[in-house]
Amino acid sequence: MSLQFKRCTILHLDTLAQVARDTFVAAFEKDNDPTDFKDYVQRAFHPERIKEELQNENSLFYFVYESEELIGYFKLNVNDAQTDVHDLDSLEIERIYVLETYQGKNFGYGMLQKIAGLAQKMEKQYVWLGVWEHNKRAIRFYQRHGFHKFGEHPYYIGTDKQTDWLLRLDV
């Protein structure tokens, strides 16, 4: 496995918005109320919203490639861009997705390794993320790679209040 990582810029906006939307829909549409979900996706992954996120100096998007094929992406937040923890010693993984076609091939682990390396270069002590409490497959994946639960927070899909587990990996 030879993954390549490319930092996204405004030039990647259209592709990033589409990939972000598609991966989120593939992962969660079946488990949510259709109306709430549709409204959430239209807001959260609208190109203007993604553009604002791309322009935030404390948020970093990366495309992930394997043999020149786009296989996924991730979004990292530091400082005041973090959604919950707001610890200067931490790096948040707000989004990390592998396209459905490429799942089960250990690419997620390669992405986590890259993120841990970025965190070390930024002199962060740990990375953290929120994962839906009912996403047992993802929770097992993160725990298998050293993450542990340190809290919970609410996450809304429209009017549906859900609970995310906060998971942490010391780097």
TrEMBL record:
<keyword id="KW-0012">Acyltransferase</keyword>
<feature type="domain" description="N-acetyltransferase">
    <location>
        <begin position="22"/>
        <end position="171"/>
    </location>
</feature>
<protein>
    <submittedName>
        <fullName>GNAT family N-acetyltransferase</fullName>
    </submittedName>
</protein>
<dbReference type="InterPro" id="IPR016181">
    <property type="entry name" value="Acyl_CoA_acyltransferase"/>
</dbReference>
<dbReference type="InterPro" id="IPR000182">
    <property type="entry name" value="GNAT_dom"/>
</dbReference>
<keyword id="KW-0808">Transferase</keyword>
<dbReference type="GO" id="GO:0016747">
    <property type="term" value="F:acyltransferase activity, transferring groups other than amino-acyl groups"/>
</dbReference>
<dbReference type="InterPro" id="IPR051556">
    <property type="entry name" value="N-term/lysine_N-AcTrnsfr"/>
</dbReference>
<dbReference type="Pfam" id="PF00583">
    <property type="entry name" value="Acetyltransf_1"/>
</dbReference>
